[in-house]
């Protein structure tokens, strides 16, 4: 359920999405307000859970993580115990940047960032040794065309 926010909240959120390291003075200037009301709104947005965390976006390739795989997983297991074990296995692996449960023929899709194909194979072997899956298809991304966490406010 979407939280109730107004136009000023949207302006603040959009400004923070662009660059969360901006000073409070800069954010206030950009949204046309003063520091105290902007700070109070940011605090309320954090308390309500709309702002989840502040972080930085790193250049994966510059850090040696040159391979991005999208991993499609089908399973014949749908029991709660299997799902809990599978979800824990994903949480324990920093290579998994995203994981989604899907509707349709594929049960899960993972975004996995690793150094190369050999590193992906190491990840894959560890995953299938820990949890049973029916079918795994790995798709190597040849080029990242767009990637953003920014919401269209």
From TrEMBL:
Domain HTH asnC-type per the UniProt entry, residue ranges: 5-66
InterPro entries from the UniProt entry: ArsR-like_HTH, AsnC-type_HTH_dom, Dimeric_a/b-barrel, Tscrpt_reg_AsnC-like, Tscrpt_reg_AsnC/Lrp_C, Tscrpt_reg_HTH_AsnC-type_CS, WH-like_DNA-bd_sf, WH_DNA-bd_sf
Q: Which Gene3D superfamilies match?
A: 3.30.70.920, Winged helix-like DNA-binding domain superfamily/Winged helix DNA-binding domain (1.10.10.10)
Which superkingdom, per the lineage? Answer: Bacteria
Question: Is Kinase one of the keywords?
Answer: no
* Keywords from the named record: DNA-binding, Transcription, Transcription regulation
Span-the-membrane segments of this chain are: none
Checking CDD domains in the record gives: HTH_ARSR (cd00090)
The name on file for this protein is Lrp/AsnC family transcriptional regulator
Origin species, per record, is: Cognatishimia coralii
């Amino acid at each position: 359920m979407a939280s109730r926010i107004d136009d000023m909240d949207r302006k603040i959120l959009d400004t923070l999405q662009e660059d969360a390291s901006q000073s409070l003075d800069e954010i206030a200037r950009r949204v046309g307000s003063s520091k105290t009301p902007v700070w109070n709104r940011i605090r309320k947005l954090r308390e309500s859970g709309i702002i989840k965390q502040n972080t930085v976006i790193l250049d994966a390739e510059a850090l040696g993580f040159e391979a991005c795989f999208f991993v499609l997983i089908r399973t014949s297991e749908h029991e709660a115990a299997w799902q809990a074990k599978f979800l824990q296995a994903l949480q324990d692996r920093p290579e998994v940047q995203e994981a989604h449960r899907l509707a349709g023929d594929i049960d899960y899709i993972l975004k996995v960032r690793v150094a190369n194909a050999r590193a992906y194979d190491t990840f894959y072997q560890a995953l299938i040794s820990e949890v049973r899956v029916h079918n795994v298809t790995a798709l190597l991304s040849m080029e990242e065309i767009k990637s953003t966490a920014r919401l269209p406010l």
